[in-house]
From TrEMBL:
Signal peptide: none annotated. Gene3D superfamilies: Hypothetical protein af1432 (1.10.3210.10). It comes from the Bacteria. This is HD domain-containing protein.
Amino acid sequence: MNTQTLYQKTLLFAAKKHTSVSQVLSGSELPYIVHLSNVAMEILIASQHSKEFDVNFAIQVALLHDTIEDTETTFEEIEANFNTEIAEAVLALTKNETIEKSKKMIDSLTRIKKLRKEVWAIKLADRITNLQSPPNHWDTEKIQNYYKEAILISETLSGSNEYLENRLKYKIEEYIKYLVISH
């Protein structure tokens, strides 16, 4: 299957799943699929700047990366509709709700690092697209924690994808203004 067909098939699956739970972008009325499409766009561009990058695998995981975490979708459903490797990647990108909040990101990053570099790239792309103007309901502490988490992601996944690593560093530098504004 070509990249466009895989993209369309996966986008439809993800859109149905996120729409079924009425998920929108935080602080907006935009459908959540906008975020997933932005992550996939980062992956498409990164693939053009990266050697030995499996864009077909990465696009599917990028579009599915929040389905287990934010919808009723199960690992088994992703495995049946896509494949085991994609389901494992989506699961690694999913925060484990059974552990305490302060350890969720480290746990996810540890699981991500056991998989191929495209999964690392998706986590970088996810944070790049999330480093926008914080929602109005976020307090100063939430903004600071999000900033610190972005640095943790950048440092932990260093060596995965130079293009996305540089993009994330730039977005982190830009995000500093929200730390100043929130005071």
